[in-house]
Known about the structure:
By secondary structure, this protein is α/β, with parallel strands linked by helices. It has 20 helices and 13 strands. The strands form 4 sheets. It has a 4-stranded antiparallel sheet with strand order 1-2-4-3. Helix 19 runs antiparallel to helix 20 (547-570). The longest helix is centred in the middle third of the chain and has 24 residues, at 230-253. Bound molecules: arginine. The site of arginine has 8 residues, from strand 10.
Amino acid sequence: MLGGITSMVLLIDLLSNLLKTAFECANYQKEYGVVVQSSRPDLCQFQCNGALSAAKIYKTAPMNIAQSVINHIPKNQIIKEVVVALPGYINIIVNDEFLTQYVNSIYCDKHNGIPQAEHDETIVIDYGNPNVAKPLHVGHLRSAIIGESLKRIAQATGRTVISDVHLGDWGLPMGLVLAELEERYGDDIPELTTDMLNEIYPYASKKSKTDEVFLNSARKKTSELQRGDEKSSEIWSQMVKLSVQDIKKTFDRLNAKFDYWYGESDSSRFVPCLVDALRLNNLLVDSDGAKVVFVNEKEDKVDIPPVIIIKSNGTEGYDTTDVATIIQREQDFHPDKIWYIVDYRQSLHFTQVFRVARKANLLPDSTELTHLCFGTVNGKDGKPFKTRDGGVMQLSELLDSVAECAYNNLRIDSIDESSRKQIAEKIGIAAIKFGDLINHYSKDCIFDMEKSMASDGKTGVYLLYVIARINSILEKVKKSDLQRVFISNIYSQSERELLLTLSKTGQAFINAFNEKAPSIVCENAYQIAVAFSKFYQESHIISEVDKVKKCSWLSLCIITKDILKKHLLALAIDPVEKM
Ligand code: ARG
């Protein structure tokens, strides 16, 4: 129960409860009664392997334990058949009536059968992470896609999530742009435009690599900005405003929605507090004019360098703002967890930041700090994804190219041009997102346009296609064919398999949350789509004359669509009506 709202119990937990009671009644520890999905779907739907582990402790043959346990299973309406199989498995098949009821109630349940967290839990997710004055690239794409999905999965399991884009708006890149603007225009800087920023940053960044004088003036500008210099701040505000407008457009296309557009600069006012905390704990050490914290530990296998809190020129770097942001988050949200969705190249940075935070007790020990480090986006050749001429692929270009490909593949004629474009955009984005999320985030992601745009196989396009197919079935039937959405019976094996797959939804979401792995939701959605396609091929839904059967089948279509959409919503993928 959660504030008077009952959330549904997972089918495997209902089964586990029965088996646990049976183990206890047979004088074994009830913990052995855990039921899992079957590893042999040809033999059974669920299984319990507890007798095998119990055998070692109780020095009894597993088959004997299993037999005695199944003799003690309490009378119930869930299990149809339970048998013991060598070397001591307990194999379970569920009653059709129960399965039917269970799936009907998933449909009626406000949370689609996903058990809700029993205690309030707040998670801050830091993702997206664009930088002011720099164009978004494919790395930001992955952060946005993975972060948005994790946010939605956590919300679907009843957690409170705070999403923060953590804009890169405070370090040397700002100084580089400010210095270059001054060099070009002196005091008379014209009204900035996005195109100007897109051109200036790469130019200034390159120049700073060879021009020491320029680099120093950029450092000076950074320091002026951080000290609140009026003129620098004014230009900087313009830069931030322009960049954010532009970034929002692209993130909107990705359905990435943030509660906060805080930047590194917003943590600046927490730096004095950070310095106090570090001093109080005797952690701040002078080193060549800079103030640093040593974070290396005896057990370290690689060298973890000290963290520079205040540089010798008085400025705050990326490490400092990240630590200070922890103070801000603790003060504002008091989160139970903070997750950072940032690529693997920043692993050292987060190790350092987390260590400083722990040493200085900036948050309770129980607060989880996790860097979910993802791999790079590679092309089919396995190398980091580039444009045709070898440059860094900008995110908006990539999105345009998939939308164009989807547009060219579109086979429906009966729609106007603007709906066509809208549908193509959704299909393209679904293809990219699913192609990314289906793999575990820690792996590099291969961007293969052809493969992710395929209308069959494990693709986002296939999922959209199944939903569009269900829509077209529902369009063809009369309203009177469907009195209410209710599956009344199971008529075939393919239908049973579809129901079984649908019944795993809650489990998939819980596992995806616990393992921070949207890939589990992707996989379950795909399994549902495959099971539906098989059921659809075998059942002549529209021409069925038996009214009760037809109504039950149509209900199954509606329920499948509803549950598939729940999965897509969690992946931030928009379905399309037709395609
Ligand atoms: N803006 C940074 C980049 O583009 C990533 C920021 C990640 N988040 C954080 N809290 N450090 O590389």
